[in-house]
Amino acid sequence: MPILSGQIVTAGQLNRLQPKTYRAAATSALAGPATNGDVPGATITLTTEMPNAVYVVDAWFDYRITSTSGTALGSGNISVDGAIESEYAVFRDSHAGSGSNFTDSVGHTYRGTLPAAGSHTLKLVASPATGQQVNIYSSITVTIYEVV
Question: How many whole angstroms separate alpha carbon 129 and alpha carbon 126?
Fold first, then answer.
């Protein structure tokens, strides 16, 4: 809803004009194999005041190879109110000869709309393959832009 010429703007409208940022980091590792497993601790629950708030998520997944076998594909994603987004951050385990301590951080940015006002949960989910884990250096940062 636009602010019109001559309109008296309320404190609530001004508060919603300022983006709100939330951040959570993983608290423990998610070991593979897993399919869209919750990354422990990387969950944000927030409340929007108006419908159609826009979210922008900066998601980072810190993958670690825990064995020296294979060249498997791992992925990370976000879940928004229980629905997993269609785009993935992808990790290719191509360093099997490097030993079991190779790590790599992969990121992805997501943008979407929260159609209803109220409580929302956004979290990291990941699918590490056997011999991979998503480490505690993974994090999710969410910025919410509300309509006036």
Answer: 10
Where do the domains of the chain lie?
Answer: 39-145
Tell me how far CA of residue 68 lies from CA of 30, 33, 80, 102, 105, in angstroms.
18, 15, 34, 10, 18
Q: Which amino acid is located at 146 in the chain?
A: E
Are 64 and 131 in contact by the 8 Å Cβ rule? The answer is no
pLDDT score of 129 more than 60:
yes
CATH architecture of 39-145: Sandwich (2.60)
The predicted pLDDT at position 64 comes to 87
Beta bridge partners, 55, equal 112, 144
Whole-number pLDDT of residue 121: 99
Write the pLDDT tens digit of every residue in 40-92.
Answer: 999 999 999 999 999 999 999 999 887 766 567 889 999 999 999 999 999 87
Q: Are 135 and 64 in contact (CB under 8 A)?
A: yes
Q: Which residue, 135, 108, 123, is CA-closest to 38?
A: 123
Tokens of 68: 């020296």
